[in-house]
Amino acid sequence: MVAVNRNRFLKRTLAGVASLAVLAGVLGTGAASAQSAPQGAIVIPDDVKIFGNDNPNVRKATAVVNGDVITGTDVDQRLALILAANQNELSEEDQKRLRLQVLRNLIDETLQIQEAEANEVEVAQAEIDQSYARVAAQNFDQDTSAMDAYLKRIGSSAESLKRQIRGEMSWQRLLQRNIAPFINVSEDEVNETIQRLEASKGTEEYRIGEIYLAAPAEAREQVYNNASQIVQQIREGGSFVAYARQYSQASTAAVGGDLGWIRLAQLPTELATVAREMQPGQLVGPVEVPGGFDILYLIDKRQVLTADPRDAILSLKQISITFPKGTTEAQAGQRAEDFAKTIQSAKGCGNVEEVAATIGAQVVTNDQVKARDLPAQIQSAILQLSPGESLPPFGSLEDGVRMLMLCGRDDPQSSSGPNFDQLMAQMEDERINKRAQMYLRDLRRDAVIEYN
Which UniProt keywords apply (predicted)? Predict the structure, then answer.
């Protein structure tokens, strides 16, 4: 689902619990036992005996959802996007597990599109094409024709990605029409939340990425294995955002699993316990939660309503040199050392260009660099500099060597937190997504799905 606001509370689209047939007479529980159970209860005897060899967890990657066909090609093309984005090769067994997860996601997507159509919610093809063009430009740095060729080359297709875009846009518009108008947040509720924020000033907030996989009881082990495989692939260099967009069944999948800034009290106990011990950049999971498994990635953390030095705006000059083809490691090391001595001889930012010119170095200036956006290994070091000082050289034989010189710094003011309107929007968004969970759960429950 396309998120209304990136800064959101924890929201997930819980998978519906699969129906279980209770064969009371066959399994020996007796009619009286079944009748004495509370209305709606599922009764499962202790001495379960399975008749037949059909394993409900073994599916071919095709299904018919309320008459709409999901083919093996549909699944393969979605899987190809993940494989290409992460440049990872999966074993045949791993791909089988991941195909099953993709199939579940495609089923949900199909249900969302069908429900939008049933409610006469339309998404024009021109809008889908515009969104596709933005994806091509922003994420792939290419025009749509190049994007089409790229997708075909990796075994996917433009149609597959456009269908995903259509599903997200259709579902979002359906929620905005059928749910959002009936969601109300009172001024008193917002004011109470603002007071709680003020009372918690100085406590820590966490920006967390989440991949949520629903796990009905009969598929628990299989989903756990899928989640473990995803964790392994991300740790081997895979993109958390790419996996979240493709596999997560939380509503935050559309924004790469980003939950925004939250406090641990807003998380389920199982996740809060884990997140409390995490450090920025750490990946943990799978963590079992009611209804499924979570994979958590701690993007960052900060203190509530407290200025963070990493939000300082820096004025930097980057001085760089490249190495001629054929330069050896020893030669590069010596030249980098000479380069550093030369730049450190400059009297601050005022004449660094003049000094750099004597050794053929290039200088680039940027007055709007947020310290938080710099690589973690550079952040703390550059915040210790005074104007005119520079970091030690860094780089590689292929890319050359560069130095960063601090020319100025605007420290952040103490944060006042979200204003009234922002907080109200966040609270409304949370309630919309809770209703969306129930909506999709009901669609799954009532769906007629045939597996081939």
Answer: Chaperone, Isomerase, Periplasm, Rotamase, Signal
